[in-house]
Specification:
Length: about 120
């Protein structure tokens, strides 16, 4: 059975690119461009993994993450960010170590690395 992924990023072109790549690899992919729509979507449909940017239009990725976890506390979330990891790396590492964040990737994300992370967190 193919895994269902939700991509939350306000960069529509990037969403379409990731959707094409991941669909070709056998995943079912839904993309959403606004944080508030992500947790609404999570209430209504099951997903195996969320791939999410931190810098979102409307409500930011941190608030979106918190709202998603309220709706689906056990869902795995992978943060994909364009922020320099030097600036927020310790915060992300702390989040990962406490189980608040399942994984974090720096944009631009290497497709092979993304698939490796997806496989690890949907196994």
């Amino acid at each position: 059975m193919s895994k269902k992924l939700l991509i939350v990023d306000d960069d529509e072109a990037l969403c379409k690119t990731w959707q094409a790549i991941l669909t070709q690899k056998g995943y079912k992919v839904k993309t959403i461009n606004y944080g508030y729509l992500a947790f609404v979507e999570m209430k209504n449909k099951p997903y195996d993994l969320v791939l999410m940017d931190l810098n979102l239009a409307g409500i930011d990725g941190v608030r979106t993450y918190k709202e998603i976890k309220k709706v689906k506390p056990n869902i795995k979330v992978v943060i994909m960010t364009g922020y320099a990891l030097d600036d927020i790396g310790s915060l992300i590492e702390e989040g990962v170590s406490f189980g608040m964040i399942d994984a974090a990737l720096r944009k631009p994300v290497d497709p092979d690395k993304l698939i490796e992370v997806i496989e690890k967190h949907t196994a």
